[in-house]
Specification:
By secondary structure, this protein is an alpha/beta fold. Helix content is 49%, strand content 11%. The relative contact order is 0.12. The structure holds adenosine-5'-diphosphate and magnesium ion (MG).
Length: 287
């Protein structure tokens, strides 16, 4: 099982987030009946946006419907939820209407809102705005990596909360807790190396920890350095092929790598011309 799922925070207290942001979000939730604005969580991947949305819903006793904005199948569900419905109607986990006796409040968690088309066609940003202007009958939490890919109009109709990259010290604490629960004795520097290498992406850090430590009793700096180097070599291999080939298969290979497109682009720009550097590079990142 993936540790990112195994250790996804269940409770609000377990989400690493500043008190200020959490207070803003709790206020939004408390006052939802009076404003009925969507909450818009924006920020880089792996910083806890989805986890926060789920933990918040669970702490309030709200059900959840998780949908992806770029998936066309989401839209009939969304418009049913906010559309012609009678006030008392609530939803099942599959997005079906229930009578108010059977149902409870459900929050729609709509991911990848920054991947919407700008046109006002079914599923575009315009369609979402229309829905929001009608004051949805259920709370909505919109999630986007890039706030500025959204129109100002959409932003202005939401309560915006900006997530930041997670501080490496907080990442180390999360990694230490996981090691403890997995029965792994980890050198502090090994965890610091993972944390700094993750650039504030806690999902990436936990994935790296699992790659380096799963099944081990002990985790050293060398274990981590080796894991990172192997990953980098894998990425180099793909990049090398990409630049030497017009074979479409290579592009799907790039997709198979456990990297976000952003990261792949970053790697491409960082590593042209290809340069292999040794352990010194890894050691330097510990300073
Ligand atoms: N702020 C955070 N606090 C606790 N765990 C986090 C946090 N951010 C990321 N994680 C870990 O990374 C995984 C992915 O986080 P997620 O909430 O899906 O990030 P996002 O939605 O911002 O991409 C979670 O399952 C959890 O294990
Ligand atoms: Mg997410």
């Amino acid at each position: 099982m993936l540790w990112v799922e195994k250790y996804r925070p269940k409770k609000l207290e377990d989400v690493v987030i500043s008190k200020k942001l959490l207070d803003d979000i709790l206020k939004w939730a408390r006052e939802w009946d009076s404003h009925r604005k969507p909450l818009l969580l924006a920020g880089p991947p792996g910083t806890g946006k989805t986890s926060l949305a789920l933990a918040l819903a669970s702490s309030l006793g709200w059900g959840t419907v998780e949908l992806n904005a770029s998936d066309q199948r989401s839209w009939p569900v969304i418009s049913r939820i906010v559309g012609e419905g009678v006030f008392n109607e609530t939803l099942s986990d599959e997005g079906e209407f229930l009578s108010s006796l059977e149902g409870k409040r459900k929050v729609i968690i709509l991911d990848e809102v920054d991947n919407l088309h700008k046109k006002e066609d079914a599923g575009g940003e315009g369609a979402l705005l229309k829905i929001i202007r009608k004051k949805p009958l259920q709370p909505m939490i919109l999630i986007a990596n890039d706030l500025f890919a959204l129109s100002r109009d959409l932003r202005n109709h939401c309560k915006v909360v900006n997530f930041r990259r997670v501080d490496y010290r907080s990442i180390v604490k999360v990694l230490q807790r996981i090691c403890k629960l997995e029965g792994i004795r980890a050198e502090k520097d090994a965890l610091v190396l993972i944390a700094k290498n993750s650039a504030g992406d806690l999902r990436a850090a936990i994935n790296d920890l699992q790659a380096a430590a799963e099944g081990k009793k002990k985790l050293t700096v060398e274990d981590v350095a080796t894991t990172i180097r192997t990953q980098q070599t894998d990425i180099f291999k793909v990049i090398q092929k990409v630049f030497k080939s017009f074979d479409p298969e290579v592009y799907s290979m790039a997709m198979l790598l456990d990297e976000t497109p952003d990261n792949i682009i970053w790697w491409v720009s960082e590593n042209l011309p290809l340069e292999y550097e040794g352990d010194d590079l890894l050691k330097a990142s510990l300073v």
